[in-house]
Amino acid sequence: MLEALLLILLCQLLGETLVQLATLPIPGPVLGMLLLLGCYLIALRLYRLAASTPLLNPVMVAIALLIGLLWLTDPPYRTYFEGAQFVHFLLGPATVALAIPLYRQRHRLRALALPILVALPVGVAMAGLSAIGLAALFGAEPAILQSLAPKSVTAPVAMGISEKIGGIPTLTAVLVISTGVVGAVFGTAVLCLLRCQDPAVKGFALGLSAHGLGTARAFQINATMGAFAGLAMALSAFATALLLPPLLSWIGLS
Questions:
Q1: Are 57 and 185 in contact (CB under 8 A)?
Q2: Which one of 5, 68, 151, 229 is CB 3.0 to 4.6 Å from 175, fit for a cystine?
Q3: pLDDT in tens, 157-166
Q4: d(CA 227, CA 84)
Q5: Residue 120 has what pLDDT?
Q6: Which domain holds residue 44?
Q7: Does 7 score more than 70 pLDDT?
Q8: Same-domain check for residues 90 and 106
Q9: Where does a domain end: 67, 97, 127?
């Protein structure tokens, strides 16, 4: 699918180039989309050549390639983001589509309803408090602690929570991405060391701790893991927004 979309955009770029020869500029959206999809396809190819090792997570490698290219070419961010708007728009439908594999696992969801309801608030609280506790031991300032607290939920929700509790939303965005990359790379190995074999449990743990990147990694392993990771990602965003502000207020950080 990505290869086909890239081919369409390459053809569009060729047409825009011919237009430029007639003194009209190539629109930024075309170049931005080519840059985005091209880096991801390179990263995906490297990932497959390396036998799908999590150390070469496609999202992580694509981000590194994009950063390098943007640093070398130094285009205006507005120009780049205009090209990525199509993918940005698709985030909404892609998130809704996570309900499809979850529906196919509805029988397991019923069986695991009680463990999920218990694990969700405990996981949300531990994700925030453990990060705050470690950072506090190293002398981090309150604003850093507040920015770190929502690091395990998806970026738009985390940034909103960070702003509400007095953190720095831009710093939170960086911490969210870092958390997702670390979770996607090392999460499955940690779960194996803990002798966790149930794909539903492993998926829920990945989605709860590493949000979208953890969910993507879970889908690479199997559909059951992916379905429960998507469920955990959605539920943890809601639960964190609901529980984290009063929890931080209770410990004097908000």
A1: yes
A2: 151
A3: 898 899 888 8
A4: 26
A5: 93
A6: 2-97
A7: no
A8: no
A9: 97
